[in-house]
Design goal:
Keywords: Iron, Metal-binding, Oxidoreductase. The chain is of the alpha+beta class. The protein is built from 5 helices and 5 strands, in the order E-E-H-E-E-E-H-H-H-H. It has 2 domains: 77 residues, Beta-grasp domain (Ubiquitin-like (UB roll), Roll); 82 residues, DNA polymerase, domain 1 (Orthogonal Bundle). It is 29% helix and 16% strand. A 5-stranded mixed sheet has the order 2-1-5-3-4, with helices on both faces. Strand 3 and strand 4 form a beta hairpin. It starts with a strand and ends with a helix.
C-alpha cells in the first residue's frame, strides 16, 4: 500500500508517495534525492543515517516515512544558512574531524541534536550533576563521548570529532 507524505526537508515543503513500509532514510534518498544521510548498517547501530526531526535526532533507517507526516526534517546540508556553514560543520573542518566522510553527516546531525539536548538539561549516563540549573556548563569530553556513543566512525576520528563538538559548543 502506498501513502502520500507531506513534510519539510531542509526548509522546503515536499510531498512524496511511498510504500507504507519505506523507511525515512530510503524516502529521503530514493524518493527525494537527499543523499547526506547514509545507509551504513541499516540496523540502527551506526548512526550514519541520523537526521533531525522537529529538532530531535533520530535514526532514519529504523523509522517509517509515513510516521513523519507534517514534520520538519533537517539533514546535514540543511544545517547551513545559505553560504554560511553551521558552527558544527565549520568545526568538523577546522578540527579535521572526518577521514572518509561517510559518517560525517550523521555525526554532525547527532552533535547538533545532542548539544540542544544538553542545553535543555537532558542528562546522559555520564552526567555528574542532574541539577537543571547547571545545563549551561560546558560538557566534559566524557560527556560528549557518551552522548555521541550511537554514532560510529570506521576511521576512528573520535578525538577530532570530540574536539569539533567542543569547538562548536564554544569552549
Amino acid at each position: 500500500m502506498e501513502a502520500r507524505v507531506s513534510l519539510s526537508v531542509n526548509g522546503v515543503a515536499r510531498d512524496v508517495v511511498v510504500d507504507t513500509r519505506t523507511t525515512l532514510l530510503d524516502g529521503l534518498r530514493d524518493r527525494l534525492g537527499v543523499f547526506s544521510p547514509k545507509k551504513g548498517c541499516d540496523h540502527g547501530q551506526c548512526g550514519s543515517c541520523t537526521v533531525l526531526v522537529d529538532g530531535r535526532r533520530i535514526i532514519s533507517c529504523l523509522s517509517f516515512a509515513v510516521s513523519y507526516e507534517g514534520t520538519e526534517i533537517v539533514t546535514a546540508e540543511g544545517l547551513a544558512d545559505a553560504d554560511e556553514l553551521h558552527p558544527l560543520q565549520q568545526a568538523f573542518i577546522d578540527q579535521d574531524a572526518f577521514q572518509c566522510g561517510y559518517c560525517t553527516p550523521g555525526q554532525v546531525c547527532s552533535a547538533a541534536g545532542m548539544l540542544d539536548e544538553a542545553k535543555n538539561g537532558h542528562p546522559s549516563h555520564a552526567t555528574d550533576d542532574l541539577d537543571p540549573d547547571t545545563s549551561d556548563e560546558p560538557l566534559s569530553d566524557d560527556e560528549i563521548r557518551e552522548r555521541m556513543s550511537g554514532n560510529l566512525c570506521r576511521c576512528a576520528a573520535y578525538p577530532n570529532i570530540v574536539a569539533a563538538i567542543r569547538q562548536a559548543a564554544g569552549r
